[in-house]
Design a protein that fits this description.
73 residues, 29% helix, 19% strand, globular
Length: 73
């Protein structure tokens, strides 16, 4: 059974790069992606998260736990 993780995704516009940059702080400072639009950056970072988690699994490692965040109702 596949474990589902919910990680924080931060997306911001980079004026110097003229694109959106997405990062996942819980997975490390080098886990990032970019896109011309917010939606592109979101899709790209979701792919990066999947690849990162697969890499952890392939190496027999447990991925970092997501931060516990209470969701607003």
């Amino acid at each position: 059974m596949k474990t589902k993780y919910e990680y924080t995704i931060n997306i911001e516009y980079s004026e110097p790069d003229k694109c959106y940059i997405a990062r996942v702080p819980e997975l490390g400072e080098y886990i990032s992606a970019f896109g011309e639009t917010y939606e592109d950056a979101l899709k790209e970072i979701q792919d990066v998260i999947e690849l990162t988690l697969q890499s952890y699994s392939n190496d027999g490692l447990k991925p970092p736990k997501p931060k516990a965040i209470k969701k607003a109702m």
